[in-house]
Amino acid sequence: MKTGAKTGVNSVAKTGLRGALTAAAPPLVAGLAAILLLAAWVGAGAAGRARTVRVTDGVILVGTGAAPAATGAYFRIENPGDVPDELIDVRVDFDRPDATPAHLTTHEHTGEGATETGRPKVVNQLTVPARGRLVMSPMGEDVSIPRPGRLIPGQRVDFILTFRNSGDIRVTATAVSPTDLRDALVATVFTPSETGEDDGN
Question: I need a labelling partner for 49 at 20 to 30 A (CA). Which of 21, 61, 106, 132 fits?
Fold first, then answer.
């Protein structure tokens, strides 16, 4: 009698366990399939992939006076990747032992219309958005260079731009006078759509 009762209990337990496993199987299979699909998605690069940014040769403004206190350089940086990158450092190769390191700056604007002014502010980094671009300008982001020394229009100056993901990229900026700055920016840094001009397409 006791043996039969024990057998019945075991049978019920096995049946219950089998039922529980059967009920749990679909969620487990679905979860495993989701994990495998996610792994394949990440492996294929669909989850986002960093790519090296592209930097166009830029322009550097010729300062006024024999020993200008500072000047600015402007570049166009494009990020073809799915992950934002950050410009974190700039070095200027003036071949001078007393050359001052460059600074990354942005401008804080106050006022409106004719009274609007932009005050430069030194920042630690400038973001280049994923599948986007960073276009430097005198009233936006730029590279500020204290004590640049005397520059001559047409002179070419080497820069090393350091990015968090893309590493070091060497580029060149051509010195231009204040009167030629806008035309030089349009030719090298801006595109027609960013200047409000028709590109003819």
Answer: 106
20 and 64 belong to one structural domain: no
| Mean pLDDT (whole number) for 109-128 | 76
Torsion sign (Cα): 175, 66, 145, 116: negative
More confident site: 167 or 20: 167
Q: Is residue 39 part of a domain?
A: yes
Rg of the chain on CA atoms, in Å: 30
Judge if 95 and 167 occupy the same domain: yes
Report which DSSP code applies to 13.
H
| Count of Cβ atoms closer than 10 Å to residue 143 Cβ | 23
Range of the domain at 9: 1-47
Residue 200 lies in a domain: no
- Residue 159 CA to residue 172 CA, distance in Å, equals 6
Stretch 88-93: mean pLDDT: 90
| Whole-number average pLDDT of the chain | 77
Residues 133, 87: contact at Cβ < 8 Å?
no
Q: Are residues 3 and 75 in the same domain?
A: no
Same domain, 173 and 191: yes
Answer yes or no: pTM beyond 0.85.
Answer: no
Pick the more confident residue, 198 or 95: 95
CATH of the domain at 79: 2.60.40.1890
> Of 55, 37, 46, 147, nearest to 102 (Cα)?
147
Q: Which residues contact 100 (CB under 8 A, 6 or more apart)?
A: 145, 146, 147
